[in-house]
Amino acid sequence: MAFGDVKTPQGLKELNNFLADNSYISGYEPSKADLSVFEALGKAPTGDLPHVQRWYRHIASFESSEKSTWGGSAVPQAAGAKPTVAAAAAADDDDDVDLFGSDDEEEDAEAAKIREERVAAYAAKKSKKPALIAKSSVLLDVKPWDDETDMKEMEKHVRTIEMDGLLWGASKLVPVGYGINKLQIMCVIEDDKVSIDLLTETIQEFEDFVQSVDIAAFNKI
Hints:
Strand content: 15-25%
Protein name: Elongation factor 1-beta
Family: Belongs to the EF-1-beta/EF-1-delta family.
CATH class of the domain at 135-220: Alpha Beta
InterPro entries: Arc1-like_N, eEF-1beta-like_sf, EF-1_beta_acid_region_euk, EF1B_bsu/dsu, EF1B_bsu/dsu_GNE, Glutathione-S-Trfase_C_sf, Transl_elong_EF1B/ribsomal_bS6, Transl_elong_EF1B_B/D_CS
Keywords: Elongation factor, Protein biosynthesis
Largest sheet: 4 strands, antiparallel
CATH superfamily of the domain at 135-220: Ribosomal protein S6/Translation elongation factor EF1B
Radius of gyration: 31 Å
Pfam family, one: EF1_GNE
Strand order of the largest sheet: 2-3-1-4
Structural class: alpha+beta
Helix content: 25-40%
Shape: elongated
Distance between the termini: 48 Å
Order of helices and strands: HHHHHHEHEEHE
CATH topology of the domain at 135-220: Alpha-Beta Plaits
Number of strands: 4
């Protein structure tokens, strides 16, 4: 089994087929052969390449200090090269593993254990990354009944609204005609916690001040 230049679609397809039956490029643990192919790819591949993508994420999970300790030899990745599994094994002076299979059940069990430990370590590392919180910036137009409405008092009432995930921002008065101003007020909301419909309904409950509430702008952050 062989794969060609991984910078080409055909080489990627052949690499994906190879990794369908192999955890690593050479042997049963990561080596310089994996590192050389990883660096040749440059970035995570896209498209229908599930085995390459799985292998790439696994190699990427190792720290640089760990990669520097890997044994074996790099796989040539010159354009047009056809590095074979057998060639990688021959170049690997530190690895006597038979790449085409082994009858040593004890060795297979040890390889499976190593894979499980690496997968568990990768999963633990990923779980420590903080989840992204989806937020939106919302600009509201709060319109009074008439020019006699106390706008400062209206804004004061609006800002008394407290919700988990709601943060009030800057505000200003904008003329709408006939001596009437509307209150434009900015807020930032966490999308999973704050319903913008509920927020506008709550503002409109100040019936002595508020005639209506419109969404002037809504942008994801």
